[in-house]
Design brief:
By secondary structure, the protein is mostly helical. The chain contains 3 helices and no strands.
């Protein structure tokens, strides 16, 4: 009998807690969110890197040799140095 009474008290206490936890319709909730625009700027050196890579690949005839002293790397170095010294 004691367990039944304690169970009923627990059920009533839990039920009252849930009833009190509901929100009323009088509250004004914001329905819109402010949009945040994220702009990533990597800087001048990154721009020069991209331009030098594209230019070197377009101008070089051998794309397989990417070691030091190759045509591709020489062109990349020249284009990067020129871009960096003139724009950064």
């Amino acid at each position: 009998m004691k367990k039944v009474i304690l169970s009923l008290v627990f059920v009533l206490a839990t039920g009252i807690t849930f009833i009190n936890a509901t929100s009323s319709n009088d509250e004004i909730l914001p329905t819109t969110k402010e949009a945040i625009e994220i702009v990533e700027e990597f800087g001048c050196a990154s721009d020069c890197n991209s331009l030098a890579r594209e230019g070197a690949l377009a101008l070089s005839s051998n794309h397989d040799d990417r070691g030091e002293g190759s045509e591709l790397m020489d062109r990349y170095s020249e284009l990067y140095f020129h871009c960096y010294t003139t724009t950064c």
